[in-house]
Amino acid sequence: MSGHDAVRSSLRSGLQLALAGLVAAALLTLIWSLTRDSIEESQRRAALALLNVVIPDALHDNDLLADTLQIEDAEQLGHREPVTVYRGWLAGEPSALAFEVIARDGYSGDIRLLIGIAVDGTLTGVRVIAHRETPGLGDWIEATRSDWILSFSGGSLDNPPPEQWRVKRDGGEFDQFTGATVTPRAVVRQIADTLVWYQEQRTQLWQPAVEESK
Amino acid sequence: MSVTPYRNIVSDGLWHNNAGFVQLLGLCPLLAVSNTVVNALGLGLATMLTLVASNLTVSLARPLLRPEIRIPLFVLVIASVVTAIELLMNAFMHDLFLVLGIFIPLIVTNCAIIGRAEAFASRNTPARAALDGLATGLGFALALVALGGVREILGQGTLFAQAHMLFGQWGAGMTLTLIPEYRGLLLAMLPPGAFILLGLLIAARNAIDSAAKQRIKARAPNELPSGEAAQA
User: Fold this and answer.
1) How is residue B162 annotated by DSSP?
2) Predicted ipTM of the assembly
């Protein structure tokens, strides 16, 4: 094939690829626009379902995703970035909050927890959202693996008293797992720190929502 | 060039040329996502759908396939199909989508898919190509589910745990707890265990296969080898 033909052949190949790319992009854009609302709705539902685990329907009558606060400095909660606090109200009165905290001293790094705290400082529930702990050892913190994480519901800084907010090996009241102390220790410590933080921040957290100027 | 009979397309995809147990392609998802049956089935179905769609598209595009750019075109087709499937799963099977996570887009890198596009779909009619995609995909899904079943029973003592993610409300009661109060064999849940169990399953498949071949030979020792007999 002469040089001229080779160039033409390459150009035609390139053109064909580009055309195929355009067709693919157009089709995908169509599918994207058709699914966009469903995806948003699914994400909303998943977020609400997760929040409902720690703030059940009995404890709120508002849209949890609508009433939120941004906490800029959440170092005490283990965050490096601002964190969103979801507020649940019952008949206009403060009921419970839900937000994520991070236990940074897990065995293999960050353990993300979802914590629900009632207005009086009692835990409504704790769940593990993400972690990289050792399967079979540290992953017993997951609700699907064991009931350990469920035992925090109803706890507060009085129950047990602050000195008891540790794993049994450290003189506290909470079980650790056979062969894995670091993981439960990190989770217990972060929950305790969160309860302390809530006590300090309680008034600010329950400030009524600021009315938007019309 | 000989045309593969429909029956052979199916038997090759499901057994003789199984993507997971014979060709050993797509090992990354095969080992990573087979920790439970539901995960395995979810990814297997997504892969099967991808194979059918990509084989069909490639076969329909045969007149336009210039040899120099056919590989990039295959990748373009496969990536588009997987993106579409990912969007649909995100919209309509959100829980499973979250659990499978990165392995849905990783379907693009499954060598079995581009392998079928190059070896079969680009050289056969759309009907045959679609059937081959279905058979290969089903074979891969079966390999995934077999490994997933073994790993879930050994690792958790259950079958179909979290079935609601794939089957919705109907699946809520599907979970079978075969070994109650089971602490779990840790090795089965980890990658080394997956490798070992996969090896055992491949050995089992090979054993069954050669036993079947022995039986055929014993029944008709004077006949032509099975390849030529099938074309009669």
Assistant:
1) T
2) 0.77
